[in-house]
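Next comes one such specimen:
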Amino acid sequence: HQKVRRDRPRASAAKRKTKKMLSIVTDKTIALDALVKPDRTPFSAAPVLLPNPDDPDREVNRRTHWTATASWLYMLRQEGEDRFGALPPAYLQKRPDLVAHGRRYPLQKMPPHLKAGRTIWHEADAVTAHDPKDASAVHIVASLCGLPRHRWVPTVERYIDDTLIVEGMIVDWAIHFLMGDDAQPTVGVHVHMLCSARRWRNDIRKGQRQRTWLHTKGQNDRAEGAWLTAVGLQPSTFTLD
């Protein structure tokens, strides 16, 4: 569970345990709705990595697909395959939860053949095909719970532009949400962001890992802090046990 820092007198231990506050934010109502699940942070960034026989824990801890191509197909609910084969048919059954999607990229620098489609992810996967130790992309999953529907797309696009595109990354995004027959969400609203991790401009360094793009813990922490601010959380006071 998340801990809360506050200046007012602390409640009794029993009362604190009962409340199980998730986080401290400017609006407590948004705070309580902000997490898809109470035991998860509202922001997660994980590298897209191939299987590595020298790292047996990788598959246990995996939070992404093996390739950027598969990640792209999955989040856009599209049929297709990567170098390991076709995506499971069950993925296509999730199509009803796809609310919106798009691509953001640096203006005036983007090669035309990378402005749409999966080419950039194919190229990234090809570079890492023989090197399981480095990422082809970074897959972010972040909660939008607590925000009104009309703010979902603007919040995502502004965050991507101000935090990721400004650094030079290319980002595909997809928002998922599904309401059940009982008027309760069966899929809590969240966004997937697939971010380029390798140089894509056509020069001698094309395909090399870009070390300033979500490569270090500090870079990921700053990206998380920017997201928490975008959705109304206070990064400086949000902690996890």
Remarks:
- The chain has seven helices and nine strands.
- The longest helix spans residues 217-230.
- The first strand starts at residue 2 and ends at 3.
